[in-house]
Amino acid sequence: MTNGETKKSGTEGAAGPGAEAGTEGAAAPEAAQPRTPSRRALLGWGGAGLALGAVAAGGTAAALRTGSDAAPAAAARPAEAVPFHGAHQAGIATAVQDRLHFAAFDVKTDDRAELIALLKEWTQAAARMTAGSQIGSGAIGSLAEAPPDDTGEALGLPPSRLTLTFGIGPTLFESGGKDRFGLRDRRPAALVDLPRFPGDNLDPARGGGDLCVQACADDPQVAVHAIRNLARIGFGKVAVRWSQLGFGKTSSTTPDAQTPRNMFGFKDGTRNIAGTDAKALEQHVWVGARDEKGGGAWMAGGSYLVARRIRMHIETWDRTSLREQEDIFGRDKGEGAAVGRKNEHDAPHLPSMPPTSHVRLAHPDSNDGIRILRRGYSFTDGTDGLGRLDAGLFFLAYQRDVRQGFVPLQQRLARHDALNEYIQHVGSALFAIPPGVGGADDWWGRGLFA
Amino acid sequence: MRALRSAAAVTAAVAATLTAVSGCAQKSDAAADDAQDGAVHVTATDDGCAVSKKEFPAGHLRLAVKNKGTKVTEVYVYAPGDRIVTERENIGPGTGADIVAEIAPGTYEIACKPGMKGSGIRQKVTATGKSTAPARDPKLDKAVAAYRAYVQEQADRTLPEARKFADAVKAGDIEAAKKAYAVSRTGWERTEPVAESFGDIDPKVDVRADGLEDGQQWTGWHKLEQSLWEKKEITADDKKLADRLITDLEDWRKRVGKAEITPTSMANGAKELLDEVATGKVTGEEERYSHTDLSDFQANVEGAQKAYELLKPVAAERRPELTKELDKQFAAIRALLDRHRDSGSPDGFAAYDTVGKDERKELSDGVNALAEPLSKLAAAVATAK
What pLDDT, on the 0 to 100 scale, is given for residue A54? Predict the structure, then answer.
């Protein structure tokens, strides 16, 4: 496999369980989040949602411009609100929050106008919730005989850096040969149907979906509240197909922070793309203005998201010798240094690593420089009825084009990765992530329906 | 399945208590029958119902009834929405009766029913005093009255079906009992929130094994369902339970007219019917032995739709986009149910254990799609115009 000495910027885009994950390089500054009002302040404003939008859009631009000068992110500021509006959707380059609630939806209506109305309503509710405000007429104070508009479990909680990121699955464009909403011609070429990878054991009930919303927040209650309320607004138009809760982020976009560990106990995300690395984002994450010819042009400024539920065989892993564990990853367990290296961030020397080691296979130098931006989470959904932990990695990766990103990477990993003995991909979905919402009049997916 | 006790149930219970108390008082007053002691005299004939005064102070009301006609009659006092405040049946020709009640300020109707049939010959009366209840849109009073008539009709129609079921059980005929089972439940399932508002009937007739409290005897439909489908035998106890089911259903039929029904309780009752579907039927828990969940499902939807249709004229004025959505979702859920019809089964639907996981998800999505907008109906009819 490939080149000897890696270049200094070697980034392993871990496809598999992201175990390889690098420790992010040297202290890169966090994506600066402009100071935003606390939830309490917002509640006091009444209808501040729209005003905030304008502020937020400016804030994002400022953050991108001044990213490298921004204050380090080490001290998270969980109470803050992440701007909802901007050129790109929040929740991709945004510093990874602690918790996840991801939901995929089936669209139940055949009526294009009704779908558009829902997306507008969702966008409005999302803008309010990410700002820490209640939706509709709120959780309390309305008619006693009727249920309140907002379910209320986030009352009194700060915005907790909630981001809501919206995506569109291939089946919205076409399903069973049917052009469901007159969108067939607008399907981006990069929104492919993922090939079957060796070893996949995919449960259709844990994959696919016409639409998705990724909710990330530092407080799980805030993330769950957001998905729950969007699902409720959507009843009759959409239905939840599957959803996944996540904790313990398995990679971060803030390379100066401590690298998180995955459920196998290894550091993950060492060389992930930093949310402030505008150049890497342009090159590997954001869809370029000329990437899509024809119908898919609306995707410029967007991205593509691969979501994979990767079950980990925890019990057998825990019976595996330390040496084998480290050989499988190609890193040591304590420091996270690559084979033959001393520190986590030392560039790995690929030829000296076992040929089936996860890091070696996933490294950009083994994959023509491919990089993807990962922001996956660990999950534990209790036990599986045989007493085994139903746990693993909910892998989320953003990229400019899956045909150059996840697909070739996973093809390589699925065939050769030593880790495959301990993991299994059980759920899979791909979504086109439209560009950001520009302002109060804009809405999720507007470019697609234009 | 029991729903949460509503405020309406509590109110009804209080009203029942008051009636009972005044019932006791009545006996000691009996001697004062002929005295002009403030009683309202009702003279019933075969084609008339004369009242001595149409206005009297709220509080203790005594009706002194004389039947001067040739037919057996009955006399009712109705509150708006046709709620029965009090009634007396079987007043023979040439006889009389005293009827007493505690009544709040407001408008009422006194009805005589010669031959004990129909809605009666009615007189509007007013109980004077300060009323705390705000005046209601007469269209809503009409909706409540029509819904009460529907509930009564469902109860009336349930009894013969339930007797068919009970008779088959008592005859030890398992196959005939199985055939009659689901059909006997239709009227109940259409109007369950009203029955539940009484609090005591539902636990006797419709409780499931897991709903029993310690020491509570298991009675009603589901106990017999278990015997027929799971145990495949009818015991002597089951035969007694069949009789008891009829007794309890008779009680229900007699009491539905007194239930506290309001426009909001109708709207929320409709939503509760869908909640029953969402929590019990879609999962197959309700009819776990017979798997006749889909016919309960259909009856719940029909009952909810009836309440909705009656409230719709008012709701459509206030929230036209809501009624448009509800029309659409009711049509959608009924079309979905129609896909599971099976003309070969006694209740007209496929057995629920033959309904696959994907189809159950589809039904569940359909219920959510309807129940969510339905939860907004109460607000649409509650707010004064």
Answer: 33
Q: Does residue B227 fall inside a structural domain? A: yes
> Nearest Cα to B81, choosing from B101, B59, B108, B118?
B108
Instruction: Give the Cα separation of A285 and A281 in Å (integer).
Output: 5
A33 within some domain: no
Cα-based distances in Å from B219 to A355, B188, B203 = 70, 16, 8
Query: Is B21 part of a structural domain of the chain?
Result: no
Residue numbers of chain A with a pLDDT score lower than 50: 1-77
Instruction: Report the number of distinct structural domains present in chain B.
Output: 2
- How many domains is chain A built from? 1
Which strand (E) or helix (H) includes residue A44? helix A39-45
Residue B156 lies in a domain: yes
* CA nearest neighbour of A274 among A151, A94, A396: A94
DSSP states along B12-41: HHHHHHHHHHHHHHHHHHGGGGGS-SSPEE
On whether both B158 and B260 belong to a single domain, the answer is: yes
Q: Do B233 and B335 share a domain, yes or no?
A: yes
* Cβ pair A183, A404 in contact under 8 A: no
- Residues with Cβ < 8 Å from B170, sequence gap 6 or more? B239, B242, B243
- Bridge partner list, A304: A399, A432
Q: B291 and B172 in one domain?
A: yes
* CATH (domain of B150): 1.20.1420.20
Chain A interface disruption, residue of B372, B375, B376, B383, most A CBs within 10 A:
B372
In a domain, A387, yes or no: yes
Rounded to an integer, the average pLDDT of B117-138 is 86
Give the pLDDT confidence score for residue B37 in this predicted structure.
64
Q: Packing angle between helix A48-66 and helix A112-130, nearest 10 degrees?
A: 70
For residue B55, pLDDT beyond 90:
yes
The interface predicted TM-score (ipTM) is: 0.76
User: Is A83 part of a structural domain of the chain?
Assistant: no
Helical axes B320-338 vs B357-374, angle rounded to 10°: 160
**Is residue A91 in a domain?**
no
- Whether residue B207 lies inside any domain: the answer is yes
Per-residue burial over A282-313, b if 16 or more Cβ lie within 10 Å, else e, is: eebbbbeeebbeebbebbbbbbbbbbbbbbbb
Residue A281 DSSP code = I
Q: Domain containing B145: what range?
A: 138-382
Q: In chain A, what are the helix, strand and coil shares in percent, each to the nearest 5?
A: 30, 20, 55
* Facing A146 at nearest CB: one of B368, B372, B378: B378
CATH of the domain at B89: 2.60.40.420
What is the per-residue pLDDT across A100-126, written as a single tens digit (0 to 9) for each? 999 999 999 999 999 999 999 999 999
Tell me the per-residue pLDDT of B59-98, one tens digit each, with 9 for 90 and over.
Answer: 888 999 999 999 999 999 999 888 998 889 999 999 999 9
Kindly give the pairing relationship between strand B73-79 and strand B49-51.
unpaired
Question: Of B102, B128, B154, which one is at a domain's C-terminal end?
Answer: B128
Residue B380 Cα, gap to closest chain A Cα (Å): 9
For chain B, which residues lie within 8 Å of any Cβ of chain A, measuring from their own Cβ?
Answer: 264, 268, 325, 329, 361, 365, 368-373, 375-376, 378-379, 382-383
Cβ-Cβ pairs closer than 8 A, A with B, add up to 38
Model confidence at B20, in pLDDT bands (50, 70, 90)?
very low
